[in-house]
Amino acid sequence: MNQLVSQLSQYKDDILKESVTNAAELEAFRIKYLGTKGIVKASMAFMKDVPVESKKEAGQLLNDFKIFTESHYAGLKDKIESSGHSGQTYSDNTLPGYAFPVGSRHPISIIQNQIISIFRRLGFAVAEGPEIEDDWHNFTALNLPLNHPARDMQDTFYIHTQPDWLLRTHTSSVQIREMEKQQLPLRIICPGRVYRNETISARAHCFFHQVEGLYIAEKVSFADLKQTLYFFVQEMFGKDFNVRFRPSYFPFTEPSAEMDISCVICKGKGCSVCKRTGWVEILGCGMVHPNVLENCGIDSSKYTGYAFGMGIERITMLKYQVKDLRLFSENDLRFLKQFTAQ
Ligand code: PHE
Asked: What pLDDT, on the 0 to 100 scale, is given for residue 302?
């Protein structure tokens, strides 16, 4: 009896150590333990050597062993079948696969990339700079000395512990950094995030994105600026869009203008979006002020240049007809999923 007990427990140990990874190994397990010449059947032969008084107990042990082996086999079989390695066609290959969620680009990134690629084709290079700026690059060099009233045009976030530092209010600061390198001619666009201390609403936020452009060379004129921006509008919005320039004021450009395009909704006929004017404003621009060139060590009697700056949110809202700027930063997937990368 003792011999039977220890033999069976040895077999059980062996069984627990068996590992099967496919249908063929599972079948080998079945033949080895449960087949007609398998270990379970062979163990039954013990019965004939067991004394009569122990037969009942031995029968019980052997039966337990058989059940143990069969249930272990069933467990292994389940495992193989559910892992898909059964070698048998239990699965329906025509069922749709598991959905694999793929992200898409943020609408601001999509439009930013489109703007960059349009200006790239005109020979503009991309320049980037820091979001934490010093006063010189954000204001003073741009012809906005301390206490200049126009500083109020852009409500600024200052850094308390470093009074000279601020969060840039426009990417014109990058233009200064590039002009200071004095490698002329210079033809750049400066995309990036900018910050202004504005009350958050459907049309304003405390941060937004800009693309500003700058071209400095000899004999650059306002006609070049107009033609460049006209080309941009036609590429960005379509051939049937017109532009108009309205006189404006920026300390860093003279003359300065604001540019409108025909309303994206009514194409110029007049609607509520364009307040019946047929026009919507998209950017500010002008000829670089001679003081700005001189501040960067560029000879303003030899070189002239134009600059422009636009808010990417504004362009995106017009292009996709988004009515509330806050949607861009709320991370609501129902909104973001509507834009596929182009
Ligand atoms: N820097 C201006 C702004 O952020 C835009 C601008 C750029 C206007 C270049 C004129 C020329 O409002």
From this structure: 98
